[in-house]
Write a structure and sequence with these properties.
By secondary structure, the protein is an alpha/beta fold. The protein has twelve helices and 22 strands. A hairpin with a 2-residue loop joins β13 (243-248) and β14 (251-255). The radius of gyration is 24 Å and the shape is globular.
């Protein structure tokens, strides 16, 4: 058994771990990056990137259904080769993973070890190859994995997760998607547009993470045009011949596969955290400060999906940088976190920015709204189903949040997020340029509606212009 001593040990080479390494390395501190399981980030391997590749294929193929309104003939004869489409998705996925590895662990030499680690004591890690690592500081960035109910494991490969879905060479004829959050809704819609028979289930009464009742209703009405959706009931699965029967309340369907999209759970079981000398919450996750990523007042830091709070790539990257910086320095520094941003890449996009509807104080908040139907650019694009709801402080007019389902929502959400980050008011925003005709005019209409409800107004005879 060999023993190695380092200043910092980083567990996990995903987005958080790599970003932690990027801060520890330049500090001059000695470090070791230890990774168990598949290398490469969750985003590149089984998350953001392969799902967006499939979405693009599905959207392009689905666009044929709009061509008849433009007088384009022959669109009904278009077909899709599913195995070839999946090969295209996998080729892109492999390229993304290779790019991550070539820019990171492939060039780290003996500073990167492929092994699972567990705590022996607060400073000592034992690897599954028998070696030990003693570290002054430790960063836990071991990521997460898809949730599969234990009872469903008996159905083997008939139950898919994102870890297995993108390995398929062909797609089943029918799928039940259980869990209609981000990944479930994105893949469910994409599969339906690829002519797979899809049925969607969720115990919640809303889909896509929405909390605003107007946005939730529009999202449900829009997505139900794509495939059947059943809400509010727990799902049970049983075998029926070579297929699976999926039952939720009075609804029951028989499908070839089930896609379990029930969220993710932290990879902490094998870490022996009881030996780390830190306090754990009811989930078995270390308690930590989200501005320092420090676990209590210990020498241990946690970052990324493993903490289960902001399981999004840019947040994992930020957490890794914060944890890495503090692990590499004697003084622990607190950092301001970014304004929350969530984007569902279904069509139209579902986006949440800043404070969600359910977090608002209704007595202090005004809401600006626009429906996409009369927006010229949306009509031209053939994407006029949607609604934008923007939230502002009644007294100051400061933008505090938004929820929306709209074409180009990914872009509008960024604009609003940046505005909130800069603490801009609705008056500030309506003085920004809005070209014509663009989808941003929908946002302009929502902002004008909000401006009429807030107390703080722009100076000058024309509210949209600055007087000289």
């Amino acid at each position: 058994m060999a023993e190695k001593q380092v200043d910092v040990a980083i567990l996990g080479s995903g987005t958080a771990g790599l970003n932690a390494t990027s801060r520890v390395g330049p500090s001059g501190k000695s470090f070791l990056l230890i990774n168990g399981g598949e290398p490469g980030t969750t985003c590149a391997r089984v998350g953001c990137m392969p799902s967006k590749a499939l979405i693009q294929v599905a959207e392009d193929y689905h666009r044929r259904t709009h061509l008849n309104r433009y007088g384009v003939d022959g669109h009904t004869e278009l077909t899709i080769d599913i195995p070839e489409a999946m090969e295209h998705v996998q080729d892109l996925r492999d390229n993304f993973v290779d790019r991550v590895l070539s820019n990171s662990t492939d060039n780290m030499g003996d500073k990167f070890v492929e092994a699972y680690a567990k705590f022996v004591d607060p400073h000592t890690l034992e690897l599954d190859n028998g070696d030990r690592v003693v570290a002054d500081r430790i960063v836990i960035a071991t990521g997460s994995r898809p949730v599969v109910p234990p009872a469903w494991e008996a159905f083997g490969d008939k139950v898919l997760t994102t870890d297995t879905f993108f390995e398929l060479e062909d797609l089943p004829k029918s799928v039940a998607v259980v869990g209609l959050g981000v990944i479930g809704l994105e893949l469910g819609q994409s599969l339906s547009r690829l002519e797979i028979d899809v049925h969607g289930f969720d115990m919640a009464q809303t889909i896509g993470g929405t909390t605003d009742p107007e946005v939730s209703q529009m999202a449900l009405e829009t997505m139900q045009r794509e495939f059947p959706i059943y809400l509010g009931e727990a799902v049970e699965i049983s075998e029926e011949g070579s297929r699976l029967r999926v039952t939720a309340g009075e609804q029951s369907v028989v499908v070839d596969k089930v896609l379990a999209s029930l969220g993710r759970t932290a990879n902490v079981e094998g870490l022996a955290l009881e030996n780390a000398g830190i306090e754990l919450d009811e989930r078995g996750i270390p308690r930590y400060n989200p501005n320092t990523m420090q676990c209590g007042d210990s020498h241990i830091f946690i970052a990324g999906d493993v903490n289960g709070v902001r399981p999004i790539l840019h947040e994992a990257g930020d957490e890794g940088k914060i944890a890495g910086h503090n692990a590499a320095h004697d003084e622990t520094m607190a950092f301001k976190r970014k304004v929350p941003l969530a984007i569902n890449f279904c069509d139209p996009n579902i986006c949440l920015v800043g404070e969600t509807y359910q977090a608002l104080d209704p007595d202090k908040t005004a809401i600006g709204e626009v429906k996409l139907a009369p927006v010229g650019r949306a009509q031209i694009m053939g994407q006029s189903r949607g609604i934008i709801r923007v939230y502002g402080d009644k007294a100051s007019g400061r933008i505090v949040g938004a929820e929306m389902i709209t074409a180009r929502g990914e872009n509008l959400a960024h604009l609003l997020n940046w505005a909130i980050s800069q603490q801009l008011t609705v008056g500030d925003l309506i003085r920004m340029p809005f070209y014509h005709p663009v989808i941003e005019e929908a946002l302009q209409a929502a902002l004008n509606n909000l401006y009429a409800q807030v107390e703080t107004k722009n100076e000058g005879p024309v509210k949209e212009l600055y007087p000289l």
